[in-house]
Amino acid sequence: MLAAVRRSGAAWTRALLLPLLLAGPGGCLRRQELFPFGPGHGDLELEAGDDQVSPALELRRALRFFDKSDIKSVYITTNGIIAMSEPPAKESSPGVFPPTFGAVAPFLADLDTTDGLGKVYYREDVSPSVTQLAAECVQRGFPEVSFQPSSAVVVTWESVAPYQGPSKDPTQEGKRNTFQAVLASSDSSSYAIFLYPEDGLQFDTTFSKKDETQVPAVVAFSQGVQGFIWKSDGAYNIFANDRESIGNLAKSSNSGQQGVWVFEIGSPATASGVVPSDVSLGLDDGAEYDDEDYDSVTHVGLEDVGTTSLSYEAPRGGDPSTHSVPGVLSPRHLPTERPARPPTERTRSFQLPGERFRQQHPQVIDVDEVEETGVVFSYNTDSRQTCANNRHQCSVHAECRDFATGFCCSCVAGYTGNGRQCVAEGSPQRVNGKVKGRILVGSSPDPIVFENTDLHSYVVMNHGRSYTAISTIPETVGYSLLPLAPIGGIIGWMFAVEQDGFKNGFSITGGEFTRLAEVTFVGHPGKLVIKQQFSGIDEHGHLTINTELEGHVPQIAFGSSVHIEPYTELYHYSPGVITSSSTREYTVMEPEQDGAASSTIYTYQWRQTITFQECTHDTSRSTLPNTQQLSVDSVFVLYNQEERILRYALSNSIGPVRDGSPDALQNPCYIGTHGCDTNAACRPGPGVQFACECSIGFRGDGRTCSDIDECSEQPSVCGSHAICNNHPGTFRCECVEGYRFSDEGTCVAVVDQRPINYCTTGLHDCDIPQRAQCIYMGGSSYTCSCLPGFSGDGRACQDVDECQPSQCHPDAFCYNTPGSFTCQCRPGYRGDGFRCVPGEMEKTRCQLEREHILGAAGKQRPGLFVPECDELGHYLPTQCHGSTGHCWCVDRDGRELEGTRTRPGMRPPCLSTVAPPIHQGPSVPTAVIPLPPGTHLLFAQTGKIERLPLEGSSMQKTEAKTLLHAPDKVIIGLAFDCVDKMVYWTDISEPSIGRASLHGGEPTTIIRQDLGSPEGIALDHLGRNIFWTDSHLDRIEVAKLDGTQRWVLFETDLVNPRGIVTDSVRGNLYWTDWNRDSPKIETSYMDGTNRRILVQDDLGLPNGLTFDAYSALLCWVDAGTSRVECLKPGQPSRRKVLEGLQYPFAVTSYGKHLYYTDWKMNSVVSVDLAISKETDTFHPHKQTRLYGVTTALSQCPQGHNYCSVNNGGCTHLCLATPGSRTCRCPDNTLGVDCIERK
Where does the secretion signal sit in this chain (predicted)? Predict the structure, then answer.
C-alpha cells in the first residue's frame, strides 16, 4: 500500500526532511572521532578488488531490520552496502535500487580497492566502550528513547577509490572516500549510525557499468524482496541520491552532531520503513523561510491527538480511502510512504535552498516525481500488470479480471476467499503451523523457552467453530496460557460464520496476513506480545501459520481450570489494516484444597493489528463495513498435563455492531444450531429460516452430504489418454505416459518436432562405441568416425597395431591393445617405456619399508609386521599381521585407518585410494556412450563404469559395454536418477562426487570441497536430493542434485558408514556402518529426525544395502557373515536369504532378484529371492576389483512425497518425512533468506 501522509493544521513531516540537509554551527566530524577501526581493534579486512563480497559475518547478537528480529549474519561489500543476506552474483555491481536483498547503504556506489586503493574493515563489537559510544550517538538523535545496545556491527570504508571504467575521469584521480556505518542492537531494537568525517567524501559519483556513465551515490535502506509465493519489492527508503545531497552528508546531520546521521532500522515502528532522527543542528534564528517556495505543501495540524487519519492512494490512480491509526503511535513513527499518482498528474519537485533557514513548524511534503531533490523518502511502485502474465497468482477456483490500474482475482461461485486463495464454501478446513515462545511466568526471572512446537487446527466452517491444539507445551507454562484463547481465536475469525453483507477474515485476506497482538494483564506487570504470520494455503490444501509468543503472563496454579464467558469484539477496517481492542474477563478455578475450591475473576486488555495486501484495482467491489462485530461463544480451554497439549475451541460469527437487540443474530446459520453436514454451507433466510446446501463436490440434502466420485460417475471427465483420481470434494486428472496437458487442458501426445539426433538416440549405424563415434552434423544428419587406434570408414573399424612398427623406446617392450598400446622398459632399465635409461626403478615407500624390516637377507623377523605392496609398489589397501592374524585398512601412505582393525580371520572391506596408472598412448574418450532403451545394471570397476542390460531378470552378458571411462578415478558408490536419466558416483581418489547423463555427453564433477572418503551414495528422485556417506569424516550429508545446498545430517555415532539407500515415497533413509566393534544398520527420516538402530545383532561387516520400492524390502550383503539378508522395516523378523558368499561389496535389487558385486570373484552375481539361490554370474573382461552397483530403471516407480511438488513449498532443501516434509537451510548459506519449517 502506497501512502501519502496528510493531516489538517500544523504539519510535522518537514521535521523529517529539512534537518537532513540544513547545516548548522559546530565543527565537522574529524577522522579520529570515528568509531575505532583497523586490525588492532579486531577488524576483519575485506578482500581487495572491485565488487567484492565478504563471507558471512556471524553475529553473536541478532540484528533487527524492518519487521525482522532474527538477522544472525550480515555480508559486507566493497560498494558501500551491509547486506542482510548474501547478494546474488548478478547484483554484485550497483544497479537499479532497491536490490532483491535487505540492505543498509551508507554510500552505495561502485567503489574500488584494487591494488591498495583503500581498505574495508568490519567486525561485531560487544565491548562496553563501543556499545556506550553507539548508545550516546543514538541518544543524541532520539533523546526520548532509552537505548542500551549489547552489540555493534562496525564497518569502515577507508580511503576507497571510485571505479572509473575504461575512460578514466581525470577530475577523480587521487580522490578517496572514508565513511563508516555502525549497526547497534539491543534486545528490542536496532539503530544505524552513519558517520562522514570532514573531507571524507571527496567524490559523489562513480562510473556505472550498466549505464556506462557517471551516476551519483545513494544513501538508502531496503527491506528486499518480500513474499513467499508472490514476491514483490518490500519497503525501501532513499535519503540521498544526487550530488548536492551527497555533498551535504559531512556538512549536515539529523542527530545534532555534524556528519553523524542516526536511523531507527529495527523495531515495531519500522515495519513499513526506517525512522530517521529529527534533531536539528541549531539553526540561525535570523534566517527567514519563504513558504511561497512550497506552494504544493499541504499544511496540517495536530489538534486531534486521539487518532491520526491517513489518506491512502491506490497505485497508479486508485481511489483514496481513509482509516484511523490508534493515537498510541507517535507521529514520527507513522508509516510515511511516497504516494503514487496517475501519469498525467505531477506535483512540484522539492528543491532545498542553499542558505540556512529559520526552523519552522514541521510540514508534510507531498512528492510524486523528484527531479533535483534534497533528501526525501522514496517508495517503490509496480508497473501495471495484467491477467495475461499473472493468472497464476489467482486460485484455480478464481477468475482474473483486468482493470485500468491492474488486475484482481475473485473466487467463482461456490467458493469463498480473496481470489488469490479460495476454498469451497462450507468445507472443513485444516490449519498447520509452528509455535515458539519465550515467556516469563509470574514473578520468575527465568523465561520458559520452547521452539518448533506443533499447532494444528480443525475448522467446521458452517458452524464457525475452530478447534486448535498446541502440542508439547511445557507444564511450567501450560496452565498460565489457558486464558489466551485468542491465540487460536484468530483462526475462528478467519472462518467465522458470515452474516449478510459482512466478511470473515479469510474472505478478506485469503489467509495471508500478519497479526501483531499485545495482551496486558490488569494488576500484573509486563505484557505478552503475540506475532502470527499466516502464509496462505500450502500444496496439501492446508493453511499455514507461524506463531511467536514473548513476554509476561500471570501464574496459574497446576491443575486449575479457566472459564471464559462469551464475548464480542469490534474489528475496525481500513485498506490493508484491521485493528481491534477489547477488555475481557476470565475465571480461574483452582484445585480443591481441604474440600474447598477457590475461583477468582481476572481481567486483561487486548489490542491487535492485522496487516494484509488487498486488490485496489476493482473500484466496483462492494465496500467493506468500517466496523464489524465478532461474536464468540462456547469458549472451551483445556491444558492436558499428561500429554502437554493446550487446546482452544470457539464458535464465531461476524456481523454488524449490535444495537441492543439480538434478534438479528438468532438465525440458526449465525448461532450454529442449523444441523447442516460438515461438508455443507448454511444459507440464512428471513427470520429463523435457513437452508443447508452441500459443498461443491458433495451430494445430499445438506444435512447429510457424501462425496461425489466424479471418476466413476463421469468416466470421460478427464478425456482420453488421462487417468482420473478422486479426492474428497474434487478430482484430479493426470496424463498417461507419453502424453501431456495442452493449453486447452486435454492430454495430447508428446511429439518431438525437432530433427532427430541419431547419435543420442542410438539409431545410427556406426561401429560399436568402443571402436567408433557418431558425430551429429545438425538436422537429421550424422557421420561415423573411427576412434584413435582404429582404422576404417566408421561403420566398420579395425584395430591398428601400434607395435608394428613399435612406437616405444628401443629398450622397451611394446604391447598392442584394442585401440591403444602400452610400453614397458626392459629389465635393467627404468622409465615410462617411451624413455628408458639404464638402472632400476626408484623404489616406493612401501618397498623401502619392506626392505628395511626384512633386512638384506630378505628374511622376516618373527613377530614383526611386514607391509604388503602391489605390483606397482603401492601399499595394498588391506594389511594383515602375519603373527596375530589381525587385518586393517591403510591410506595411500600406509597409515592405519582408525576403526578398521578386525579380529583374526576376518578381512575388512578396505578401499584403495590410488588410481590405476595411465599408460601413454592414444587417449580414451571420457564422454558417456548413450544407453540403449531398457533396464540395465550399472557397476563400477577401477577406472570406469560399465552397463549390463537386463532382459526380465536375466543378465545379457554378451551385450555388456563400457558406459564411461574414468581412468583417473576410483569410483565406489553409484546411484541412478530415473527422472533425468543421470548416473551419480563417488570418487575416493580426488575425492569428489560426479554425475553424467545416460543420453551422452561429458561427465561433470558437482562436489569437490570438504570431502574425506565419500563411499555410499543414494538419491531421492522425488525430492531431487542426493545423500552420501563419508567414512573419513564419519558423517552423512545431503545436497541438491547439482551439489549445492549441502547440509550435514549426522556427524556423531558413526565409525565406518558405507552403504546408503532411500525410500523416497515414505521419506526414510537407511545406511550401514561396518564399525568393527559394533556393526549396525541404522535408519532415520530424510530430514535426520527419528534416528534409530534397525539391525545390530549377528552382523559382521555389512557393506552393501538396497531398498526395493515395489516390495518395500530392505536387503543387505555382509562380508563378515558372508550372508544376504532382508527385512521389511517396521516388522521384527529378518530373513537369511543366502549364506556362503565369497566377499560381497555392493548390492542392488530389481524385481525378485538381487545383484551384488564380489571382490574375490571380481564378478556380478544374481540371486533369486524367491528360491534363495544364485542363478547367474557375470565376469567382466577386465579382471579387477568391482565396487558399486545400481539399477538404471527404464521408468520411475509410481508414488510421490511431500517434496515432489514445488519443492514442498521450501525455499531451499526439502527433506521428506513419512506424511510430511521439513524445510532446511544449507550449512554453507547462513544469512541467506531461507525459511526452516516443518
Answer: 1-28
